[in-house]
Amino acid sequence: MKKLLHFLFHSEVPDINERYRKVTSAFVVIFIIGYSIGFLQLLHLGPYLGPGLGDNVSFQPLITSLQALHSQNPSLWYALIALLCVTVSFRLLVMLAGYFLFEREEGSAYPIKWIIVFFLCNLFSTLTIPLLLFALATLFWVSGLDFNLGWQWIDHNVRLANQLVVNHVPTLINAPAPIAVLMIAIISGFFHYWFHRLGHTQRILWLLFHRPHHMTPALMQSTTMAVFTALPLFFFIILPYNLIFGACTKLFSSEPLYTEVIIFNCLILIPEIFGHHTALYQIASRNQLIRLASFISGGGVYHYMHHSSEPEHCGRSGAVNLVNIGGGPLFIWDIVFGTYCPLSAKTPRAGLSGQPELHMNPIRLTLAGLAQICNELYRNPSWREKWRIVIGSSSYTPTLSTDFAIKSNKIRQEQATPNPATIKNFTFSAPADAIASVAAKPVTGPQS
């Protein structure tokens, strides 16, 4: 057993010969088609509005909304069906282009090894969810509690958040649906901004929750590691996530706005797909319509700057990943808190700071943060250091530390966030200046 565990954690996926390219391409195409169709299950949720009013991840809310809309307003139903088709088809074509144009834009085909490793990372973290639920359920059962309390932990948390929102959060302004959606996006965007920012600035959130999303050295949607399946913190954020975003929804609408949210998400998800494609950065950043749509949505191609491993692109030494954090339309909170960054003329290199060489082992990469925290807590005897290991900033490295994701014999520190002194140097971008930079012609030199 010891040898098996050593093999699983220390072996690496080797380089794959290009003769397997056709098989790999077929796999990528199948994955993209399935991902595009499966994404329809999330259109009633959205990154800002949150599943706080009893929503669930399935096709049923979408089908129910469409059926209700068809009987109430057939004309709008046809328009929404057309918008759904445009959104799904556009995202599918962009994802295909992000893979097949990679060699033309980057000089070589997307490494097969990276596709295998990061796909398996996503698969491993996703399959671990039912395993952890089973372990939690078993623990409850051994403790004399109901087995289903652990097995249905996610559903229980969603229902609890729903009950708390419905029973205790008032509707301050029962605004018309379009205005309500916009207000919800702005207010909940504030919380999304700080959740995301804390995922970079707080050590335990960075290592256990958000760093895997930033590991991929060159981005495609197919190889970008999902955020909310990150181990093991997704178990602990279900309730606060649902509660906060659900409360933001209830403040401006007494009832779920499924149809309106679906329309809103269809629109913002069109430019959003450009945020995780290295090969499409130049195409998207030079297209005025894509730039404008990305800026209005508060993401899109601008989000790619957030994945840069090179802080000099925003003229802020050390500010890796702490730009274009998102949260609400027009990058409102990035502008307010000084983390808005215009597009770079050069395609930024993605990945962790400095693009360190990673262990090409999907199990090791997925568990690297958890292994590092446990290793540090075990090896550092000082209780003060143990405390800082857990609650310290992401720039802190204890006396004894091993990074299990990065190939290095030395202690490495992913500078995922600048020091407070660096943050103070962030220049405030006025909304008018930011909007003007979007409408301007593509730059021909580095921006600051």
What does this structure look like?
The protein is mainly alpha-helical and 448 residues long. It has one domain. The protein is 58% helix and 0% strand. The C terminus is likely disordered. This is Fatty acid hydroxylase domain-containing protein. It comes from Zhongshania aliphaticivorans. InterPro entries: Fatty_acid_hydroxylase (IPR006694). One of its GO terms (biological process) is lipid biosynthetic process. One of its GO terms (molecular function) is iron ion binding.
Task: Spell out the blueprint of helices and strands.
Blueprint: H1 2-10, H2 21-38, H3 60-72, H4 74-100, H5 102-106, H6 112-142, H7 147-151, H8 153-168, H9 177-201, H10 203-210, H11 234-252, H12 258-272, H13 281-285, H14 288-297, H15 301-306, H16 332-336, H17 362-379, H18 383-391, H19 420-424, H20 431-439
Helix pairs in contact: 2-4, 3-4, 4-12, 6-17, 8-11, 9-10, 9-11, 10-17, 12-14
Pfam families: FA_hydroxylase
Keywords: Membrane, Transmembrane, Transmembrane helix
Transmembrane segments: 23-43, 76-102, 114-142, 175-195, 216-241, 261-281
